[in-house]
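Support case: user asked for a sample of complex input and structure output to validate their parser. Sending the pair below.
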Amino acid sequence: MGEVAVLGLGMHPWGKFPDKPLNDICRVAVEAALADAGVRWREVDAVAAASSRFSGGKGWGLNGNDIVEEMGSTGIPVYNLSAGCAAGANAFNVGYTMVASGMHDVVLVVGGEKMPKGFIQTSGLDDETDPEYLRQRCVGLPGPGFWALLTRQRMAEYGTSEEDLAAVAVKAHQVGQHNENARFRQLFTIEDVLKSNMVSHPLRLYEICPVSDGAAAVLLCSAAYARQKSTHPVWVASSAVATMRFDDGLPRGLACVPSKGRAHHSEARISVGKALEGAGIGAKDLDLVELQDNTVYYELAFPEEWGMCEPGESESLLHKGETLPTGRMPINPSGGFLCFGEATTAQGLFQLCEVGWQLRAEAGPRQVPGAKIGMAQSIGLGGNGTAAVLKR
Amino acid sequence: MSKSNSIPAAEGLFTETADGPRLVGSRCATCGSAYFPRAQACHNPECERTDMRDANFGPRGRLASVTIQGYPPPAPVVWSDPYTPYAVGLVDLEDEALRVIGRLRVDDPENIEVGGEVELVLASLGHDDEGRDVISWQFQPV
C-alpha cells in the first residue's frame, strides 16, 4: 500500500440554512478543499461521497453524483457510501484505500447534509421488522434515551455527577467558541447547562447535539502527486472501519446478549484499535482526538474504552483541564458535535478537517500546541465504526 | 378493558401464559444465545450451527439502568394525554442471558433505584388515535 496525503481541506460552516440548496453547501466545501490543495476539479480522478438519507442524492443516496454534476461531469467514477452517521468517515476509508492501492492518484471525499427538524427519528416506515421502529412504538425510547441509559450506568458505576456531565458541555463551548465553522459558539456555565431542558434524564438539552446542516470535503492524493503540490503535507497514518461485535452488551434494538465486561460500542473500540495499530502507536501517543460526542457521555466513556486513560479517570482529567487543547489529552478541540450539531453524514469529515488543520498548526486560538499526530473517530447506525489517524 | 378497546403495540412480541406474561423470542439450541424479538438465525459468530427455537422470557429481572423521557416524543411513540414524563429501563432478565429495554410502570419515576428487582407486566402505554389502549410489555418494581 502506498502512502496517502491529505492535500486539501474544505468546509461549509455548520448551521441551519433553510434557503440554501444542499448542492450550494457542498460546492462551498468542495471548492475550498480544491483551492486549499491547489488542484483543479478536472484533476480529480474519483469521488467517494457519503450517502445521505435526509437530503439530496436524488432520494437514492447518490450524493456523490450530485456533486460531480455540480462541479462538472468529467466521467470519473463515483462511490456513494452509506454507514449512518459514520458515512463521511467510511467514504474517507474508501478514498484512502483507492489511493493507497494505486488505483487513483487524486480522490475527493465529501459529505454534505441538510437535516430535518427535531431529533433523528425512525426510518419513517411503520415496519415491524425494523428494530428502531419497534423501540419507539413498543417502548418509546428516542436516541437521547439510549444515551441516557448508558450515562446512568456510568453514574451508578463511577459516581459521575450531573455537574460532571455539564462540565463536558462547558468545556466543549470553551474551545468551540473559537471555531468559525461551529454553529453553537456561545459560552455556558455549569448552571446554564443544568438549567437547560431535561431531554432524557440525566441528559439535558445542552448535553446532547441537535441536528445541523453542513458539508466538509477532504482531498486525498498519492505521495508522488503530493510532492508536486506541497513540501510538507499531512499524511494518513492509518484508516480503519469496523462493525459491532455480537456480545458488546449494547441493546441497539429491543434487547441484546449481556456483555461479559462493561457494555460498550465495540465498533468504536475495534476501529480505533485497528487505526492505532495501523499507525504503529498507542492510545496515549495521540496529540489530539476528535471523537463522536453526540452526547457528553461519550467524551467521558470513549477515552477510557480505548486506553487513552484509566477507567473512571475521565472526570478528573476534564476538571483538571487535561482535555483542553493545552492539556495532556486534548479532546475535540473543534468544539465537537456539541458545538457543531449533527449533519449526520458530513460529521466524520469535519472531524478530519479539524485534525488536518491542527496538524498544520492553523487552528488559531483552539490550537493544540505542537500537534503531530491526531485521530478522528465516528460511529453510525447499524453498528458502523471508523477511525483514522493523521500525522505530519 | 374490553378486548376490542385494546391493541398490542406490535404483533407477536409478548404473550399471556398460565404463569403470567412473557416476552416471545428465540433461543439457539446450539449455543444458548437468546433473542428478542424472534431471530431466524443465530447471530453469534462463535456458534457452529443455527438451531433456533421459540422461547418465552421473563418475568423477573434486575434494573441495570433507567432514564426518564423528559419531552413527549413524536409518533410512533405512544403516551397518554396529557403527557407526563415516563421512565424506561434496561433490564437484565434472570438466568436468561438477555438484556431488554422496556417502559417502567412506576408511580414516581424520579425515585427508581438502579439495581432493583423488577417483573414483567402487560399494560397500556396510552391511547391511539381511535381511543384504544396500546398494550406493550412493561416492567414494575417487585
